[in-house]
Write a structure and sequence with these properties.
- The chain is α/β, with parallel strands linked by helices.
- Helix content is 44%, strand content 14%.
- The protein has helices spanning 18-35, 48-57, 84-89, 100-105, 110-122, 135-139, 143-151, 159-162, 183-200, 203-208, 219-226, 243-250; strands at 7-11, 41-45, 63-65, 94-97, 126-131, 166-169, 211-214, 233-236.
- An eight-stranded parallel sheet has the order 3-2-1-8-7-6-5-4.
- Strand 1 (7-11), helix 1 and strand 2 (41-45) form a beta-alpha-beta unit.
- The protein is globular.
- The structure holds phosphoenolpyruvate (PEP).
- Phosphoenolpyruvate binds next to strand 8.
Length: 253
C-alpha cells in the first residue's frame, strides 16, 4: 500500500475574468470546507494575471494555487515571460510544465521543459510535468516510447528533487475532446511511467510519485479512474471551470 498524495488539479487555461475567477475560487473554497471529507489535495491553475489576487484570497484555505507555465531563465530580456522568483515573490509554489497546448502552440520541447523543471525546483516551486502522446502516435503504437522520451526531461534530477515533482499523463487525443482514455489504458500508461522512473531513478522513487490522469475527466468518470492502482488523481480542464463538477471529482477518491 503506497502513501501517495491524492490530487485534484484544475487547469483554468485562458478562461475567466478576475471577478469570475474570484467567484469560482470562493465557491470551491466553501464547498471544500463543507463537503470535502477525504484528504484530497486541491490545486488550481488560473491565468497568470489572477495569481496574486487569488493567492491572497485563498490564504489559509486548503487550496493550493499554481501557474500554468514558467520561464526557464532566471531573468532578462524575455518580453512577456514570468520567472520563478516572480512567482515565489507572490506566494506561488506550483506550476504546470509542458502542457500539450504549450508544446503544440508555443513550441515547448522536452529540453525546454527540462530547464523549466530545474528552475522551478531551484525556487521551491513544485512542477506538474505534463506528458502524453497524440492520437497518431497511439495509433502507430509509439505511445510508450513517446512518453518515455518525455520523461527523460527528468533525468539528472536528484532523488530529493524528483520526489517533489508531480506527473500528469494527458493523452493529447483526450484533452478537451470529451473522449477519455479507458481506465485500463490510463492505468497501463501510469504503470509504464513508473517502470521508466524506476530505470531513471529507483523503485522507491517511482512508487512514491503522484501521477495524475488528464483528458476529459468529469464527475461521472472520476471514480472509475481513481479506483485504478496507479492513478493518483486528475488534471482537469473543462470540468474545473464549474465548482460543483470540480468538487464532485475531488470527492470521488
Ligand atoms: C487539460 O487541459 O489539462 C485537460 C485535461 O482538459 P480537459 O479536462 O478539458 O480534457
Amino acid at each position: 500500500m503506497t502513501n501517495r498524495k491524492k490530487i485534484a488539479a484544475g487547469n483554468w487555461k485562458m478562461h475567466k475574468t478576475f471577478a469570475e475567477g474570484q467567484g469560482l475560487a470562493q465557491e470551491i473554497r466553501t464547498m471544500a470546507d463543507t463537503e470535502l471529507m477525504n484528504d484530497a489535495q486541491l490545486l488550481i491553475f488560473p491565468p497568470y494575471i489572477h495569481l496574486q489576487g487569488l493567492a491572497k484570497q485563498l490564504e489559509g484555505s486548503k487550496i493550493g494555487i499554481g501557474a500554468q507555465n514558467i520561464n526557464q531563465f532566471e531573468q532578462g530580456a524575455y518580453t512577456g515571460e514570468v520567472s520563478a522568483s516572480m512567482l515565489t515573490s507572490i506566494g506561488i509554489h506550483y506550476t504546470l510544465v509542458g502542457h500539450s497546448e504549450r508544446r503544440q502552440y508555443y513550441n515547448e520541447t522536452n529540453d525546454s521543459c527540462a530547464a523549466k523543471i530545474v528552475i522551478a525546483l531551484k525556487h521551491t516551486i513544485v512542477p506538474v510535468y505534463c506528458i502524453g502522446e497524440t492520437l497518431t502516435e497511439r495509433e502507430t503504437n509509439q505511445h510508450f516510447s513517446i512518453v518515455e522520451d518525455q520523461l527523460h526531461a527528468l533525468k539528472g534530477l536528484s532523488n530529493e528533487d524528483i520526489s517533489k515533482c508531480i506527473i500528469a499523463y494527458e493523452p493529447v487525443w483526450a484533452i478537451g475532446t470529451g473522449v477519455t482514455a479507458s481506465s485500463d489504458q490510463a492505468n497501463e500508461m501510469h504503470k509504464h511511467i513508473r517502470v521508466v522512473l524506476t530505470r531513471l531513478f529507483d523503485e522507491h522513487i517511482a512508487q512514491g510519485i503522484s501521477i495524475l490522469y488528464g483528458g476529459s475527466v468529469k464527475p461521472d468518470n472520476a471514480k472509475e479512474l481513481f479506483s485504478q492502482s496507479d492513478i493518483d488523481g486528475a488534471l482537469i480542464g473543462g470540468a474545473a471551470l464549474a465548482s460543483r463538477d470540480f468538487i464532485n471529482i475531488a470527492k470521488s477518491f
